[in-house]
Each structure stands twice: as structure tokens, then as C-alpha cells.
From TrEMBL:
Keywords: ATP-binding, Nucleotide-binding, Transport. Belongs to the ABC transporter superfamily. InterPro entries: AAA+_ATPase (IPR003593), ABC_transp_ATP-bind (IPR050319), ABC_transporter-like_ATP-bd (IPR003439), ABC_transporter-like_CS (IPR017871), Oligopep_ABC_C (IPR013563), P-loop_NTPase (IPR027417). CDD domains: ABC_NikE_OppD_transporters (cd03257). This is ABC transporter ATP-binding protein. The keyword Hydrolase does not apply.
Length: 255
């Protein structure tokens, strides 16, 4: 995925100020930055939930240049999982109906496969989102996103509303799926330890701009921008002790 000069305005205020970045196929770009810096707006612009200017390309497809119909089809190639699955899943739908929203038509067999893919008991498919735990709901949201067979998955603070122990399980699931399916991913989080676990590259947003972008460990070890330095300095654990294991088990102290 390639984003070039992306700009988002709300009235007279420009909240995303012409940012550009590439995420190579199968790579994970972590996006961090203070509250209000424009991370979610960037994500929403990419999936087409917010009008924007600039170019968004998925492989050869230029989402800004094609017709409305082609754009809708193109947008299916980018799916998003939100922070709060309580509001992103329709409470009147069953789990199966929620997942099937991502399918061209309802297909019970495919729904069952998708539930298994995210390690959810297919016996839950007639439950309503409100009857599930937060972690189970996020799995449903992930299954719905994967139902569309996207090339790009955008995860915006997907574990922020979960308990620490459940966060680790959902992150491990996401990382496993990202690798198995070769998904290209934009992973937004406040938590530097979590981003370090998930991402190959790290971009830092500040005031609607990307002020730093590079391989995660390089940015953490040698931040060049003053804002990135202050961001890292505010997290005493970074650089002092390893927060996360390199293997598949995410250390629970990651919060
Ligand atoms: N629909 C909207 N109308 C007007 N302003 C908006 C709208 N959505 C977002 N903004 C403003 O755009 C700016 C960026 O918001 P955004 O939600 O992208 O930040 P963020 O980096 O995701 O923050 P957080 O870390 O808190 O999630 C903020 O100043 C916000 O108030
Ligand atoms: Mg946000």
C-alpha cells in the first residue's frame, strides 16, 4: 500500500497535512503519536470513511483515480478493525451475521471457517455481540474484516479496550494471522511495546504530520526527531529492559 500526500480537512482545520508512506506487501507499519495527532483520521481516510485528498494505492490500483464502483470494490481490499467492537458490531445481529457482513453473500460454511480461523467456538454463531466478552467480540470483528479477503488490514487501537491478559491473546492472534495470510498491515497503537511486538516499521505522527519513519528498532534506538525522543523518554521501560519476548509469547507486562 502506498499513501501519497494524504490530506484531510474538517472545516477550516487540516488534521492530516499531506502525509506519505509505503507499506511493502506483507509488512506491518506501526503508527504511533499523541492523542489528536491524526492517526485514526488517516486510517478512516484510507478505508474511505472520511473524504481526503491525495493518492492511495493498493498494488496497481489507485483508489483516488478510479470510478466510484471500482473504488468500492477496491476499498474491500482494505479492511479495518476498530478499538471498540461494542459499537462497530451491530448489536441486533448474530455473530454469524456480523461475520457475514464481510462476505459477498451469507455463507454458513465460510462463516464457520472464519470463526475457526480466529479461534472462536463456532457454537457461538447464534449469540449476539452483547453476550460475548470483549476479546471474543474483537475476534468477531477480525473475522468480519478477514471475510472480505483484504490485502491490507488496518488495526486502530484494537486492544486498547481489553484487559491486559486478553490483549496479549488478541495480539498473538493478529500477528499469527498477519504472517499466515501475508497481510499488509497498518497497526495503530498508543503502546510502544505493543507496536514493537507487531510492527516491522514505525511511523510517528505529530500534529498531522509524520515526523519520523524507519525500522522499529532503529527508531527506538536512535530517534532523530525531538518529539519521538520525548515520546520514548516518557516510556522508561523502552531501552532499559526487554518488554517483549522475541518468540510467539507476548510478555504480559507489555502494558
Ligand atoms: N469528524 C471530525 N470532525 C472534526 N474534527 C475531527 C473529526 N474527526 C477527528 N477530528 C479532529 O482531528 C484531529 C485528529 O483526530 P484523530 O482521531 O485522527 O486523532 P488520533 O491520533 O487517532 O487520536 P487518539 O490517539 O486519541 O485516538 C483531532 O483534533 C480531532 O478532534
Ligand atoms: Mg485514534
Amino acid at each position: 500500500m502506498s499513501v501519497e500526500n494524504l490530506e484531510v480537512r474538517f472545516g477550516s482545520s487540516t488534521v492530516v497535512k499531506g502525509i506519505s508512506f509505503d507499506v511493502p506487501p506483507g509488512a506491518v507499519l506501526g503508527l504511533v503519536g499523541e492523542s489528536g495527532s491524526g492517526k485514526s483520521t488517516t486510517a478512516r481516510a484510507i478505508v474511505g470513511l472520511t473524504p481526503s485528498r491525495g493518492a492511495i494505492r493498493i498494488g496497481e490500483l489507485d483508489l483516488s483515480a478510479v470510478s466510484a464502483g471500482a473504488r468500492r470494490r477496491g476499498r474491500r481490499r482494505v479492511q479495518m478493525v476498530f478499538q471498540d467492537s461494542r459499537s462497530s458490531l451491530d448489536p441486533r445481529f448474530t455473530v454469524a451475521q456480523c461475520v457475514a457482513e464481510g462476505l459477498p453473500r451469507f455463507d454458513r460454511g465460510r462463516v464457520t471457517e472464519l470463526l475457526k480461523l480466529v479461534s472462536l467456538d463456532p457454537g457461538l454463531q447464534n449469540s449476539r455481540p452483547g453476550q460475548l466478552s470483549g476479546g471474543q467480540r474483537q475476534r468477531v470483528a477480525i473475522a468480519r474484516a478477514l471475510a472480505a479477503e483484504p490485502d491490507v488490514l488496518i488495526a486502530d487501537e484494537v486492544t486498547a479496550s481489553l484487559d491486559v491478559s486478553v490483549q496479549a491473546v488478541v495480539l498473538n492472534l493478529l500477528r499469527r494471522l498477519q504472517r499466515e495470510l501475508g497481510l499488509t498491515m497498518l497497526f495503530i497503537s498508543h503502546n510502544m511495546a505493543v507496536v514493537r511486538y507487531m510492527a516491522d516499521e514505525l511511523a510517528v505522527m505529530y500534529g498531522g504530520r509524520i515526523v519520523e519513519h524507519g525500522p522499529v528498532q532503529d527508531v527506538i534506538d536512535r530517534p532523530e526527531d525531538p518529539y519521538t525522543r520525548s515520546l520514548l523518554a516518557a516510556i522508561p521501560e523502552i531501552g532499559q529492559r526487554r518488554l517483549l519476548a522475541d518468540d510467539d509469547e507476548l510478555a504480559l507486562e507489555a502494558r
